[in-house]
Amino acid sequence: MAKKFILVCFILGSLILTTGCQYTARKLGGTTTEQLPANTKLVNVTWKENSLWLVTRPMRSDEQPETYEFKESSIFGIMEGKIVIKESR
Prior knowledge:
Blueprint: H1 2-18, H2 22-28, E1 30-35, E2 40-48, E3 51-58, E4 67-71, E5 81-86
Parallel strand pairs: 1-5
Antiparallel strand pairs: 2-3, 4-5
């Protein structure tokens, strides 16, 4: 019974750690995606403690939606996080 409980806890923990949450991507590596509201243009992105801050503005009529990647580059190349930010019309 204890082995089954440990196995279930391990599986649930693995699922939680591999879901696309910002904290997980930043602290443990992996990728998560942020979808901006329609007709919103990304200006800048940064971290403040454990929160992702996005500077946005309204999209002009002559602009096209873009996709951005906010990537971490660590010394040893392990546990690097990536946030993909997508704009839309």
